[in-house]
Amino acid sequence: MDTQSTSSPEFTTRWVNLADPRIGALVLSATDEFFASRERMLNPEPAVFIPGKYDTNGKWMDGWETRRKRVPGNDHCIIKLGLPGIIKGIDIDTSHFTGNYPPAASIEAASCDGEPNASTRWVRLTAPVPLRGNAHHYLDIADPHIWSHLRLNIYPDGGIARLRVYGQVACDWALRPQDELYDLIAMENGGLAIACNDAHFGKPANLLTPGRGKDMGDGWETRRRREPGNDWAIIALGHPGIIKKIEVDTAHFKGNFPDKCSIQAAYIQGGTEQSIVAQSMFWPTLLPEQSLNMDTIHTFTDEIQALPAITHIRFNIIPDGGVSRLRLWGKVNLGATHDSM
After folding, report:
1. What does pLDDT average to over the chain?
2. Would you state the pLDDT for residue 167?
3. Which of 239, 250, 252, 254 is nearest to 328 (CA)?
4. What is the pLDDT of residue 9?
5. Domain count, the chain
6. Are residues 147 and 185 in the same domain?
7. 186 and 101 in one domain?
8. Rg (CA), the chain
9. 336 pLDDT band (50/70/90 cuts)?
10. Which phi and psi angles does 251 have, rounded to 5°?
11. Which of 169, 202, 235 is the last residue of a domain?
12. Torsion over CA of 125, 129, 133 and 137, rounded to 10 degrees?
């Protein structure tokens, strides 16, 4: 458990943020939100500070902030995770809260089909940990259970800018019809963006989120390439499968979409991120180079090369630019499994 580190630990890039509202996460309730609304705490964008901005209750803060508590007890809120999963790490972020952050916080978890109630059994994931102002507090979680809800306790009151809950999405593929096509890299199906050569303007994990991108910031975009070569991202499928349809969506990318794209793929068992990246240059071609247009959903079926079940893809954009969403529709291969990284 690391509450002092200034650098982001591996779990923040390796796993999905289960508390992302883009996949359905929301704050169900809070004991108090007098100074700042509870919904702001899950905003996927970094917290901001706007000097001189006030509302009717006081200074506007980008996060969840309760009033000064004058009675015994502590404040808390209950969060529904966007997708049930195994939690690997948590970031309690107090960015811009300096004289109004809680001295400590703790996390409890529950698993339930509906909303938590008085009979819900809460399990402590972390004991109360000390917090600092204007800082990230990264908490490693070693718990194998699947959770659907969290309770964030703050002691006794104050403000939290952002809460990130990184984990592995839980998918029971054995319960799904085998003859249907699934987007095997969708975040809700366990897809993971595990590596890329550049993410200057947007992370490749955005490619896997539900729906179409809301704007140019809601996608994967690289810097302008000034040297030979092309940009790429490595994505792990949620389950091994055989790909039948591919969609490349350049929504909102008009003067900065890639000229072309291609996809390589392979079936990988085990291996480190570094070894997978090194191997990926030599993977077979799943989708040969295809020309792209601005602000368009490109659908490919006949162009897909016949490959057996795959677990990983290398998405090449040529030479650089931005893509909003990537979909790989296929049939799961229930006789095949692969170890998550």
Report:
1. 95
2. 97
3. 239
4. 94
5. 2
6. no
7. no
8. 21
9. low
10. -50, 130
11. 169
12. -50
User: Domain containing 58 — which CATH number?
Assistant: 2.60.120.260
Residues 163 and 190 in one domain: no
* pLDDT at 91 > cutoff 90: yes
**3: in domain:** no
pLDDT at 280: 98
How confident is residue 337, by pLDDT bands cut at 50, 70 and 90?
low
Token pair of 250 as six digits:
């350049």
Q: Is the peptide bond before 144 cis (omega within 30 degrees of 0)?
A: no
User: Residue 202's domain spans which residues?
Assistant: 175-332
pLDDT at residue 52 above 60?
yes
Q: Each residue of 178-194: pLDDT tens digit?
A: 899 999 999 999 999 99
Rounded Cα distance, 156 and 73, in Å: 7
DSSP 75-125: EEEEEEEEEEEEEEEEEEE-TT-SSSS-SEEEEEEE--SS---TTPPPEEE
| Contacting residues for 92 by C-beta, under 8 A, at least 6 apart | 105, 129, 131, 136, 137, 139, 152, 160, 163
d(CA 129, CA 23): 28
Summarize the confidence of residues 86-111 as an average pLDDT. 98
Place of tokens 């790490």: 89
Residue 3's pLDDT is 45
Give the C-alpha separation, 162 to 92, whole Å: 6
CA dist 341 and 333 (Å) reads 19
Terminal-residue alpha carbon distance, the chain: 21
Distance separating alpha carbons of residues 209 and 188, to the nearest angstrom:
8
Q: Are residues 191 and 299 in the same domain?
A: yes
- Measured CA to CA in angstroms, residue 92 lies from 139, 213, 229, 250, 289 at distances of 8, 26, 39, 33, 42
Q: How confident is the model at residue 333 (pLDDT cuts 50, 70, 90)?
A: confident
* CB-CB contact of 311 with 338 (8 Å): yes
DSSP state, 279? Answer: H
Length of the chain: 341
Residue 2: its pLDDT value, please? 46
The helix/strand/coil state of 10 is coil
1 within domain boundaries: no
